[in-house]
Design brief:
Largest sheet: 9 strands, mixed
Mean pLDDT: 91
Strand content: 25-35%
Helix content: 25-40%
CATH architecture of one domain: 3-Layer(aba) Sandwich
Distance between the termini: 52 Å
Number of strands: 29
Structural class: alpha/beta
Length: 540
Amino acid sequence: MTSHPIDAMPLTLAAALDAASGERSAAPFILHGDELATYGDLAVASRQAAAGLQALGLGPGDRVGLLSLNCIEWLVLFFACARIGAVAVAMSPRYRDGELGYILKDSQVKAVATLGEHEGCDFVALFERLAADAPRLRHLILLPGAEVQAHASATTKLERVPYSTVLQSADNAEAVTGLQSGATAVTADQLAMVIYTSGTTGRPKGAGLTHRSLLASAWAQAAHMRIADTDLLTLASPLNHVGGITCGILTLLAGRGRIDLLPEFKAPRMLERIRLHRPTLLAGVPTMMTLLLMKSEGMDIDFSSVRLAFIGGSSVDPSLLARLQQKLPAATLMNLYGLSETSGAIVLTPWDASDRDLMETIGVPIGDARLRVVDPGGVNDLPVGEVGELCFKGCGVVPGYVGEAVANAAFLPDGWLRTGDLGQVDARGVITLRGRAKDMYIQGGFNVYPAEVEAHITRHPDVLMAAGIGVPDPVLGEIGHYFIVRKPGATVTEEVLRAWCAEALADYKVPRRFEFREELPLTPAGKIQKAALRSDRAQT
């Protein structure tokens, strides 16, 4: 496939934004509710904020936490950090004391920009509590609205600086001019961002994303998807995750497109924005797409403007893709495979994929990404068609993890990333995902990959979500225990689902146990949190 013409990739994030601003200064880039930021607006504001961060004593290598819902201020500070060589540490508003306390210490954060209250949590008070165990933390930048919580909190271990003050610190031309020359000292291989893994197992690890890795993934995705200045993406994926910052913001930046940025994913709100702005692009994890389809029933939503929808973050079951094809008949659908450790997308469905390839495979490597399929020891390459662990190098693969608890065993010599995902590649180079290596269980001597079973279960018309784990069994070693969320109003039973599986799957793959729930635990990125499910089972 011929790549769509995209300008040559810049070496740093600031250079990327400035190049786009130089070409399209007055062109809209980010629409956020009633706010609009042009390319020029974002470039200017990020220069001002960069000088303001420098006025706080922040500089190259310093870690700055960003905790908020999606907003323009988050992007301003992200690019501001990039300009001065500081490192943005992504924090989710869904995190609480345990997670945030760990990240503050592990990344040695010196400043945090935070919202005020969200879903009953006062983050100003929370960071004040955590400051005693985070000796490097000095500054709390209060995003719009956080001043209310700041006034209500009497304890002030940290210097509190309103976001507006950060911008106003650079109102003199000398500060911004000095910054311009300093920005050139930032290099492509410097850290730009730390994203902590979703924590599906144990303590999260901080993936160290560089300027080069972020831009490489975004530029490769933009070329593959043929992003143009006529494109508008409706984006509800969190900016603290590669699905939002790389697959959304930076990819559209590469193609000079526009983004309708929602604070967070709420299906009714996203549908209203789709109705209002008629996007050409849609993106989300399978859970988001499933809820969009559910909530759109009975609503007069015209999806005919959508030319491309990309779905990633976890395995996409064929029934969801089939429903999306019906709802978006004019759109091309693409699976997107990527990790925090690949800085974003590294595998995408080809444009000329057959329906079978779309339903059964995840696609081909993009950009300069290289693929190996290795045995469990990570030593030997496996032949075409055999299932092994997927390993990648190039494109957006990060150099490693950061923090005190270094966990670089995920990397093979010469920079190959062991993903922990099982898959196989055919003679065409097309990849089929078989599941997570750690999710596989052995029932009576047979390997069972839950992703395959989950995909079949979710094809049942009464099932909304399914997640399987292996649990101990005195006779078979392990058996499959599957958690099911029914569709609203559905009454499907364990017996019906067991018969449904027995019709299509080998007997050893048929789940021995089903457990019905109202919802499943999700990571901040929208993936099902199997570690929580395993913990639940271990306690019963």
